[in-house]
Amino acid sequence: SVLSHYVNVVLLFLFAYAVFDKQKALIASLLFAVHPLASEAVGWISAMHYLHIVFFTLITMIFHYLFRKSGQRRYYVAEIVIFILSLVLLRNAWVLTLPFSLLVFDQLILNRKFNFKSMLWILPYFIFAAIHAYINLFGGFTARVTDLKQDYYYNPYTATPLLNRTPYIVFTVIKLLISPLALTVYHEGIYISMVSYTAMIAVTLAMVVVILKLYKKASYVAGLILLIFISTLPSFSPVAIAWFIAERYLYLSTMAFSLILAFVIPYLEKYTGIRKFTIYAVALLLAFYTIRTAIRTQDLLSTSNLWHATQKVSPYSFRVYNNLGDVYAREQKYDLAVANFKKSIELDPTYADAVHNLGYVYLQMGDYDNAWKYLEQSYQMNPRLYGATYKMGVIAFYKKDYETAKIYWLKTLELNPGDANAINALNVLRQAVAAEAK
């Protein structure tokens, strides 16, 4: 992940050097290299595809720039081939943001005004993206909705409507980019007062006004601002198929924000007349970003630190307390684990994972009655929880109720074919039955 990130840093430097100038390329690449907001995407192995999307986005933009400046169609062919390659290799919904990024780059950063004739060069991107979505993602949409409902206990159809959640998303993105202080995996469970929500609406409207004004005076900056929000397009889906916001979604946004700073900082030096303002400002930002990135990375590397940090920011997130319960259970601090799982259930009584985990802790404590109670309840809440059926089989086995144990372990294999624990348990069961028969 770190290597992929620094490949993207080099590509950003080459891109900005070609499109803008050396100073902006240097400032943007340095700030992007150590920006704290990139730490989740870089430090979390399952977020690697966000780094890959930016890699393909930058490569495609570089070739598109070469095509527009030289007029040589070999560059255009190369960018299309690279985009198709990204669709084949990445095969996820987030890669569909690339055509929108390229459209903004072409119209607002290269042309610096809307030109419908040049838009035709971007049309193939949307055609190939639509084909990709139809072939590879259409069925995946239904699967994603099912997974969100059954595995993450999040119903996309009853989630906060798009119009209501837009101010929160826009405000949170801006806040995270400007002030990347507290770390949280879940941007949920945060109390929002009417005053705060009104402020979020005001910030969103102000951002729209800023983009419209910059379009006339500095369209390239307006384009960079739009790129910030393009990376979060799935969050703006009418049917919610992603979390409202997650820091890993903002990897491209962080790159665009670094480019904006590369314009703003030298402008402030010119406006204020302070000599070497750019050097001092960049140095201070680099120091601040480096320290915050180091702290965030430490939190990401430690499960305990991560969930304690998240709990401070999202004190009403039922998922946070479930994960804290896991941490305490692994540390064999069972009383604290029970308290956190119960807090999670209190915040969301329909959260089957926390109910299951509470039952598992009681199993570890040797309290089989409470363990069975909560494991059975979790299975009734989510019939896909094969972990619950396996553990209920374990309890039945401990109580020498071998027939019940067999029923639940066979059910586990039905839900999760090839489950090694259930297969081994059934073998042990046969041996136990045979031994008693003798």
Q: What is the secondary structure topology, with strand pairs?
A:
Blueprint: H1 2-19, H2 22-34, H3 39-43, H4 48-70, H5 73-90, H6 98-110, H7 116-119, H8 123-150, H9 162-178, H10 194-217, H11 219-230, H12 251-272, H13 277-301, H14 303-313, H15 318-330, H16 334-347, H17 352-365, H18 368-381, H19 386-398, H20 402-415, H21 420-437
Helix pairs in contact: 1-2, 1-4, 2-12, 2-13, 4-5, 4-6, 5-8, 6-11, 9-10, 10-11, 11-12, 12-13, 13-14, 14-15, 15-16, 15-17, 16-17, 17-18, 18-19, 19-20, 20-21
Describe the structure.
- This protein is mainly alpha-helical.
- It folds into two domains: 1-300, no CATH class; 306-437, Tetratricopeptide repeat domain (Serine Threonine Protein Phosphatase 5, Tetratricopeptide repeat), CATH 1.25.40.
- Helices cover 76% and strands 0% of the residues.
- It has helices at 2-19, 22-34, 39-43, 48-70, 73-90, 98-110, 116-119, 123-150, 162-178, 194-217, 219-230, 251-272, 277-301, 303-313, 318-330, 334-347, 352-365, 368-381, 386-398, 402-415, 420-437.
- The protein starts with a helix and ends with a helix.
- The mean pLDDT is 87.
